[in-house]
């Protein structure tokens, strides 16, 4: 029997000024207070452009590879054991999160983890 294909989780990653790469990331399992979203769309904003052009914005300097795009919409794919207010299939929270192209791992309170 053939092995099941792994879902594509293509991400736009900045490695430093002018260094953008498309990379696949593993899809994380949500922790107890986290939600995994299947992404439908992701925005790139001015801070992402600064990370790409200058490798920084303000005092924050990109020191290791970082996935770009933090304005997103999606559908809840999985929820952690302590998440009671969201269910798989629901439209995911619209919030300021760090994302991976098709999936995002985030706290149920809306703070970014990944």
UniProtKB/TrEMBL annotation:
Residues 31-91 form the Alcohol dehydrogenase-like N-terminal domain. It catalyses: L-iditol + NAD(+) = keto-L-sorbose + NADH + H(+); xylitol + NAD(+) = D-xylulose + NADH + H(+). It is an enzyme of class 1 (oxidoreductase). Its EC number is 1.1.1.14, 1.1.1.9. Its cofactor is Zn(2+). It comes from the Eukaryota. Keywords: Metal-binding, Oxidoreductase, Zinc. SUPFAM superfamilies: GroES-like. Gene3D superfamilies: Medium-chain alcohol dehydrogenases, catalytic domain (3.90.180.10). Belongs to the zinc-containing alcohol dehydrogenase family. PANTHER family: SORBITOL DEHYDROGENASE. This is Sorbitol dehydrogenase. It comes from Pan troglodytes.
